[in-house]
Design brief:
alpha+beta, 6 strands, 60s Ribosomal Protein L30, Chain: A
């Protein structure tokens, strides 16, 4: 597989992706379902719907926020990964061995750019073994 690039809407945070009913049972909120449906449409338009990638991958994400609010970037990955799984871009998000999230510039309406590539491992820098310093 070569690199795959996908442009998607800005995802909802994990805090708004889920809701809870009166019995405390967790479910995907309306906002989450709308995001997933829109991602499926956009994946189809970009010819990545039903790719069914089944090899180890790296995922690079640039989140272009719609406003200046403070944001924890990792809170947006659940909705994004679920949407790409349900669009069958990959067979399962457990295939992700490397994940890099970057904050992009402020963009009206927000946006999410994704690059999927083969995961080829990583190289540790020349430094002492960090595990040697744990008691």
């Amino acid at each position: 597989m070569k690199e795959v690039f996908i442009d998607l809407p800005f995802p909802p945070t994990v805090n708004s992706y889920y809701g809870h009913n009166t019995r405390g049972i967790k479910y995907v909120s309306k906002r989450g379902r709308v995001f997933r449906d829109l991602c499926a449409e956009m994946c189809n338009e970009q010819n990545v719907y039903n790719m069914r990638i089944d090899t180890r991958i790296s995922l690079d994400v640039i989140l272009y926020p719609p406003d200046k609010r403070k944001r924890d970037l990792d809170n947006y990955m659940k909705a994004l990964q679920d949407a790409l799984t349900l669009s069958n871009v990959w067979t399962d998000d457990e295939l992700i061995d490397g994940l890099h999230i970057h904050r992009g510039k402020l963009l009206t309406g927000g946006k999410c750019s994704v690059r999927i590539s083969d995961h080829s491992g990583f190289i540790m820098p020349d430094s002492p073994n960090i595990w040697d310093f744990i008691e």
